[in-house]
Amino acid sequence: EDQVTQSPEALRLQEGESSSLNCSYTVSGLRGLFWYRQDPGKGPEFLFTLYSAGEEKEKERLKATLTKKESFLHITAPKPEDSATYLCAVRDNNAGNMLTFGGGTRLMVKP
Amino acid sequence: GAGVSQTPSNKVTEKGKYVELRCDPISGHTALYWYRQSLGQGPEFLIYFQGTGAADDSGLPNDRFFAVRPEGSVSTLKIQRTERGDSAVYLCASSPRGAEQFFGPGTRLTVL
Known about the structure:
Mean pLDDT of chain A: 96
Helix content of chain B: under 10%
Oligomer: heterodimer
Structural class of chain A: mainly beta
Shape of chain B: globular
Order of helices and strands of chain B: EEEEEEEEEEE
Low-confidence stretches of chain B: none
Largest sheet of chain B: 7 strands, mixed
Distance between the termini of chain B: 37 Å
Order of helices and strands of chain A: EEEEEEEEEEE
Largest interface: A-B, 21 and 27 residues
């Protein structure tokens, strides 16, 4: 059974204080690891897809990296508008097209 | 173009009642997914359509839950004899075949 664990559950940063969010996963065969951002009362917003170990993707202050067992979402010099819940999900070769999500990391960036 | 839309945005019902939740996917997306999200948790998969047929319904919790997509576009999630434990946000997503899933805003269902 696929498992996705995100840590920490919650993270408070000062504006400009860089940090990383962790996503550990267990799948039989990875067919994509996905990062989403979710604001309160809204649906998840797609950020990145990573397919193989060593791959990196960047978007503004965010950079996602992937190893064979985990992914990191690095946030450089965050701003208050980066406050949200960040969700990680995996798609397994043997599980069709469904995504298995972690519980998310709630990020709060204080000015 | 427009994103995934879901109606209603909020639904309050009484235990034992029947509810229908609607999803309009992004135009041209052949795949459609339903997920359920409880407070403080990540979304959980319910069902996946490729075209008109349910390609994977392994996430439906029991036979009170049913979903259709008769013309390969709009989908309806139907819940019979609702229970308080069904209260959650129901999310719909669509994608071009095999690609990233784009989510709608969700329907918040409250069963009293």
